[in-house]
Amino acid sequence: MSAATHLPAGFDEAFDPLFGRAFRVARRILGDDAAAEDVAAEAMARAYAHWGKIALQPWREGWVVRVSSNLALDAVRKRSRVSSGVVEASVEDDDVVVRLALAEALALLPRRQREVVVLRHLGGLSEAECAEALRVSTGAVKTHLHRGLAALRNRLGPVMNLEGNASHA
Amino acid sequence: MHDDSWPVATPRDEVLARVAARGTRIRAVRGALNALAVLTVVGVSTLGVGAAVRAVTDGSPATEVDNVAIGPEPPNVSVPLVTGGTADDSTSTTGGSGSTTTDDPADGRPSTTSGGGTGPGTTATTPSSGSGSTPGSSPATTTPTTNAPSSTAVPATTTSSPSTTVPAPEVGNLRMKADGVTLGLAVCEDEPDSVVAVEIEGADTATMSWNRAGETRRVPMSSTSTDWQAPLGELDDQASDVPVLVTIEATGPGGTTRTSVAVEVADCSPLPSAPSEPGS
C-alpha cells in the first residue's frame, strides 16, 4: 500500500489493535457499524496526527479510546440535534432509546467521571488500565467510577443497567 | 494476519490509507492555524508600533498613535493560563504575547496597546509632531505625545485626561479551570467543562469570544464580585494543538477593555511529563 510508506514509525503495527478498540467503543455508543467505523477512523487519524507524542506512551490505547468515545458521543448528540424526531420515531427501538439516553446521561457527567465510565465500561479497560490512561491512582478511578455510575443510575433510572448494556453491546 | 481480527467490512488497507490522508491533513491544518495564530498576535502587536513609527517619520495622522505613544502601561496581557486542580503536572501554556484594546468612553475610539517585546514605553517618549488625536477627542498638538491629553481611560492615565474620571475595566490574569481537576491540559478539545476565569475590576458586563479555525464564538461571562468566568466549551472537529485566540471584552462605566490571549490546545489526553522513552 502506498500510504504505508509514509506512515510514522510504529503506526502500522499499532493500527489494528488501536482501531479495534476505537471501533468497539464507538459501536457500543452508536450501535451502528458504519458510523462506528467512521468514528474509529477519525480517532485513528487524530492518533496519526499526534503519533509523535503518543506512540511510545503506555496510555496511548486509553487516549485513542477516549478520543473515539468523545467523537461517538458527539456524533450521537449531533445526530439527535439534526433530527429531533429521531427519538420519537424510534421509541419502539429500545436499543436506540437506551443508547441515546446513555449518551445524553454520559454527556452530563463531570468530565473525569465520564472518562472513567467510558474507559471502564465501554472501552473495556481494567481499572489499572484506566488509571494508567488517565494518570490517576486506581483509587481515584474507583471513586470516579462509583460516583459516575451512581449518577447514571440516578438519571437513567430503570431505563437501563449500564454494566449490563456495556457487557452485551 | 491483519485480516484475522479486522472488525469492519472495509478492507484494512483502505481504512489505513484514509486514516493516513486525514491524519496528514489534520497535521497540516494544525500547523497552518498555529502559524496563523502567531501571526495574528504578532501582527496586532506590530500594528501599533508600526503606526507610531509611521507617524514619527512622515507625520501622517495615525489615529492609534496617540494612544500607543501616550498609552499607559498595558494591563498584564501576556498571561500564562493555568489549569485548575492539582491532580498532575500541568503543561498548559499560552502564547507569549497578547494585545489589549481599550475603547475610550469619551469618543468611542479604540486605543490599542500591545503586549510582547515592544511595549508602549518604547514609544512613549517619542515626539510625534502633528499626530493629533481623532477629531473631537482632543485638540491637535505639536507637543510631544507624552504631554498630549490622553483619551485612554485606563487608571494609570486618567489623571492626564480631563474628560475621563472613571477608570476603564482592568482585566487580570486569565486562568483555566476544568472541573476542579487538571488533566495537564491548557484546553482539551471535546472538553465541555473547561472554564476561563479572570479577575476584572470596574466592569459591569463582560463577554468572552474565541476564534479557532475561522469560527468565532462569543459567550457572556458570569461574575461573582470581580471574578468572571465563562465556559470555553468543546472544540470539537478541530485538530488538537491549535491555539485558540481568546478575547475578553469588559465594559464598565469607564469604557471597554479588550484583552486577547492565544491559548494553546493540548491533546485530549494526559501529556507526558517527560520526553518519550523508547520501548513502550
Detailed description of the structure:
The complex is a heterodimer of chains A (169) and B (280). With 169 residues, chain A is an all-alpha fold. Chain A is 76% helix and 0% strand. Chain A is built from ten helices and no strands. Chain A starts with 10 loop residues before the first helix and ends with a helix. Mean pLDDT of chain A is 80; it is low at 85-92 and 163-169. By secondary structure, chain B is α+β, with helices and mostly antiparallel strands. Chain B contains three helices and ten strands. Chain B has helices spanning 12-58, 65-70, 120-123, and strands at residues 94-103, 110-114, 170-178, 194-201, 205-212, 215-220, 222-224, 227-231, 244-252, 255-263. A six-stranded antiparallel beta sheet of chain B has the order 2-1-10-9-5-6. Chain B starts with 11 loop residues before the first helix and ends in a 17-residue tail after the last strand. The relative contact order of chain B is 0.17. At the A-B interface, helix 1, helix 2, helix 3 and helix 4 of A face helix 1 of B.
